[in-house]
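Session log. Operator J.P. requested a structure for one protein chain; no other inputs attached. Running the standard single-chain path with token output.
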Amino acid sequence: MFDDREKGLLRRALDGILPNDVLYRKKSPYPKTHNPAYEAIVKNRLMEIIHDPTSSLLPLIDKKTLYNHHVGTI
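Structure written below.
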């Protein structure tokens, strides 16, 4: 949030570069995260990552926080 808008900093940085109808259009929820199939795919991929000891993403993931916030779902 910046200037009381989502993506406000990005919008400010691109002011005068992008047309206003693009710059200030309403945020579009893509991909549609309410789709259960999409959620299942993301969860499965996350499980693969956190159980792969060679994953380069592991240093970026706080497993304890992940498990605490998603008890029973991961």
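Operator note: The mean pLDDT is 83.
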